Amino acid sequence: HNGIGGKRKEARLRYLSRYWMNRLKDVPKIHFNTSFESNQSCAIANVQIEGINPEAIGKYLFDKHHIFVTPIIHEEFQGLRITPNVYTTLGELDRFCQQMELIACNGLPS
C-alpha cells in the first residue's frame, strides 16, 4: 500500500478482478455472488459453478494446478472466494479462468 499508493493499488485490484470476472461472466453454469458494480466490490469476488461443490473445486485447483482459492459455504450461497493481489499476473488469471471454463463445461475431472 505504501509503496504504490492507495489509489494505484485500488485501480490494479479492480483491473485484475474485472479481468477474470469479465472472462467468465458468460460461461454457462458459472454464477457470481459478487456484484460487478464498482461501488459494491473491489478485489474480492465470489463465484460458483452450478452443481459442483466449491470445496471439491478448490481442492482440485490447488492439488492439480497450484491455484489457491477459498471455498465459502453458507446457507444463503456457496462459491469460491477469488482474491488476486497486486502481484498477480494476467497469465495466472488466464490459467485460473481456463480451468474454471473446463470444469463448467466438462465437470470436475476425476
Q: Can you describe this structure?
A:
This protein has helices at 6-24, 54-65, 90-106; strands at residues 30-32, 45-49, 70-73, 78-82. Helices cover 44% and strands 15% of the residues. It starts with 5 loop residues before the first helix and ends with a helix. A four-stranded antiparallel beta sheet has the order 1-2-4-3, with helices on one face. The protein has three helices and four strands. By secondary structure, it is of the alpha+beta class. A hairpin with a 4-residue loop joins strand 3 (70-73) and strand 4. It has a single domain (6-106), classed as Aspartate Aminotransferase, domain 1, CATH 3.90.1150. Helix 1 packs parallel to helix 3.
Strand content: 15-25%
Overall structural class, as computed from helix and strand content, comes to: alpha+beta
Q: Quick one: biggest sheet?
A: 4 strands, antiparallel
Average pLDDT level? 94
CATH arch. level architecture: Alpha-Beta Complex
Q: Could you list some keywords that capture this structure?
A:
Aspartate Aminotransferase, domain 1; alpha+beta; 4 strands; single chain; four-stranded antiparallel sheet; 110 residues; 3 helices
Annotate the secondary structure layout.
Layout: H1 6-24, E1 30-32, E2 45-49, H2 54-65, E3 70-73, E4 78-82, H3 90-106
Antiparallel strand pairs: 1-2, 2-4, 3-4
Helix pairs in contact: 1-3
